[in-house]
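User: My collaborator and I are trying to settle a disagreement about how two of our proteins should look. Neither of us wants to argue from intuition anymore, so we agreed to look at predicted structures for both before our next call. Could you fold the first one, then the second, and keep them clearly separated?

Assistant: That sounds like a sensible way to settle it. I'll keep them separate. The first protein:
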Amino acid sequence: MSTLTPVSLEEMKFNPFELIGKQWMAVTTEKDGHANAMTASWGGLGVIWGQNTATIYVRQSRFTKEYVDATDSFSLAFFDESHRQDLGYLGKISGRDEDKLAKLGYHIDHFDGIPYIEEASMVLLCKKMSATPITPDQFIDPSIKEKWYADGDLHTMYIAQIVGVLER
């Protein structure tokens, strides 16, 4: 039984720059009944197409990209500082090599079919609306390509409607 409960998005009070850029998040999704997660510190929250949305960026090389592409939903899990080392692990180790969530002792639950990490302190439940590959010709500032994509491993930008929020 989940220890997280649904809350209204309008009740949320947080700084998205702190939440995503400094505290990080775990992008969690599922494919063929198996969950996978990766740490992300790039993303955004806002409004587009008349919907409250979350935007995430996943590199082409990431195993989690296969999972995000295979489904119409994902969750963004946020943790308190006691999970910082776990988030570092989720970002460094590939799900191709081991079941990272099981190794950390994390449990996957579902809300309206969307998988999420039960140990999180807050979860945004998301339904994909678009996927846009980022290509080198899109950079107006050439230093972006040099600094962030010298290896050619570009991101895909996913915009998703936030369909629910769970909180501890």
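The second protein, kept apart from the first:
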Amino acid sequence: MSAADFAVLVNLTDVPDGRQRYQDLGRVLEWEKSRMSHHIARMAGRGLVVREECPDDARGAFVVITDAGRAAVEAAAPRHVEAVRELFLDHVTPAELRMLADISERVVAKLDEDVA
């Protein structure tokens, strides 16, 4: 599974009903509209997601994870965790990891302040 497929599927598993508006998913992934459209069409062709029209907005649509998409991301997750461990976690000490967590929490808190 490509990193792009994994990113889409993980985001869809993190939202209620495995359903997200195209524009919201594109914003989270930081993808241009054209990339979103083409990539989601390819994933739909492989049965990982489906496109559903938005009943409240004729111009809007949802990307919805399928059972096959859920199975694919569940199968890929252990390999993803292993790669993160091998490429990153195995190379930092517990103290460095705590420091990174502290820094990340401060940055996220600042971002949350700026949004509010």
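Some points you might bring to the call about the second protein. The mean pLDDT is 92. DSSP finds five helices and three strands in the chain.
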